């Protein structure tokens, strides 16, 4: 089970198609098919379920996907560290949508100007899934906000992770222009919250603030972008919690009512002892919240 075979397996697992994986890898489909069959023979188990031309991962294949990502990431890390950065390598970065929109463009542009040989990959998502992907090696690092029930930095350490706060965000409750009564949040007539899917730290903060858990009145509209959330708030159909830095990017920011709620730190999180030159160069470009603890 060499690294090249694992790369082939990873491509087939991602595409669920021998033909598409072969095109992605620049190989003949027959070669890709043979390597998968050899891997299954070596392991003594089917990694894919086949129904005609359709493929899906078997239970064993799904387990191997995670290990493959970790093994290939470790190989890449070793090459980069041993060559002291001479091997261009890459850096797989995870980020909350808000950080990707408001904070990362300038940082990543600066990184690319200084180190154009390093291949940067960016993947966005809620904080909890991003933490899991860093833990299992699918990402090298991620920008996240720790959930309230996560256990803080001790929770990171228990997962074999470490991190430091790089930005502090002011979170605002955004409401339609005429929706904020003098009595405050508890008197808001709207009972619809626009938020990312479960796993988003800011959603958890908003739900606790508004009393959503256990309520029969509140409805959560799950969305995948802040643009959509702001548009729905402007249309008068819901409220939403979002960072001030994101709201200020929208032309609609002056047309909404906002209520400051709480400040939340954005952390850069990585696996303990992960220290490639590519990652250290990213760290050097980031600010640090002066009074925030680190682990």
Any overview of this molecule?
The protein is of the alpha/beta class. The chain folds into three domains: 3-69, Arc Repressor Mutant, subunit A, CATH 1.10.10; 84-165 and 266-284, Periplasmic binding protein-like II (D-Maltodextrin-Binding Protein, domain 2, 3-Layer(aba) Sandwich), CATH 3.40.190; 169-264, Periplasmic binding protein-like II (D-Maltodextrin-Binding Protein, domain 2, 3-Layer(aba) Sandwich), CATH 3.40.190. It has twelve helices and ten strands. The strands form two sheets. The chain has an eight-stranded mixed β-sheet with strand order 4-3-5-10-6-9-7-8, sandwiched between helices. Strands 1-2 form a two-stranded antiparallel sheet. Strand 1 and strand 2 form a beta hairpin. Helix 1 packs across helix 2 and helix 1 packs across helix 3. The two termini are 36 Å apart. The model has no long low-confidence stretch (mean pLDDT 88). GO terms for molecular function: DNA-binding transcription factor activity; transcription cis-regulatory region binding. Residues 1-58 form the HTH lysR-type domain. InterPro entries: LysR_HTH_N, LysR_subst-bd, WH-like_DNA-bd_sf, WH_DNA-bd_sf. It comes from Halopseudomonas oceani.
Tell me the count of domains: 3
Strand order of the largest sheet: 4-3-5-10-6-9-7-8
Order of helices and strands: HHHEEHEHHEHEHEEHEHEHEH
- List the uncertain runs: none
Number of E-state strands: 10
Beta-strand fraction estimate: 15-25%
Pfam families: HTH_1 (PF00126), LysR_substrate (PF03466)
GO molecular function: DNA-binding transcription factor activity; transcription cis-regulatory region binding
Keywords: DNA-binding, Transcription, Transcription regulation
Protein name: LysR family transcriptional regulator
């Amino acid at each position: 089970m060499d690294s090249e075979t694992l790369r082939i397996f990873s491509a087939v697992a991602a595409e669920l198609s021998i033909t598409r994986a072969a095109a992605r890898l620049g190989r003949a489909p027959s070669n890709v098919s043979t390597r998968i069959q050899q891997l299954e023979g070596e392991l003594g188990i089917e990694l894919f379920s086949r129904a005609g031309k359709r493929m899906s991962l078997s239970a064993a294949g799904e387990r191997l996907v995670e290990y493959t990502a970790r093994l290939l990431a470790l190989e890449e890390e070793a090459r980069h560290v041993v060559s002291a950065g001479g091997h261009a390598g890459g850096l797989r970065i995870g980020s909350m949508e808000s950080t990707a929109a408001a904070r990362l463009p300038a940082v990543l542009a600066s990184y690319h100007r200084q180190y154009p040989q390093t291949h940067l990959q960016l993947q966005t998502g809620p904080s909890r899934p991003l933490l899991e992907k860093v833990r299992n090696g699918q990402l090298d690092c991620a920008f996240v906000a720790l959930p309230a029930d996560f256990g803080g930095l001790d929770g990171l350490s228990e997962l074999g992770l470490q991190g430091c706060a790089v930005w502090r965000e002011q979170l605002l409750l955004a409401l339609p222009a005429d929706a904020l009564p003098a009595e405050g949040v508890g008197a808001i007539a709207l009972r619809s919250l626009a938020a990312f899917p479960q796993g988003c730290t800011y959603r958890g903060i908003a739900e606790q603030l508004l009393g959503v858990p256990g309520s029969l009145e509140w409805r959560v509209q799950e969305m995948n972008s802040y643009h959509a959330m702001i548009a729905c708030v402007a249309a008068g159909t819901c409220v939403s919690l979002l960072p001030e830095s994101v709201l200020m990017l929208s032309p609609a920011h002056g047309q909404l009512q906002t209520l400051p709620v709480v400040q939340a730190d954005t952390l850069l999180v990585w696996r303990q002892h992960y220290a490639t030159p590519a990652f250290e160069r990213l760290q050097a470009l980031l600010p640090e919240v002066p009074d925030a603890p680190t682990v």
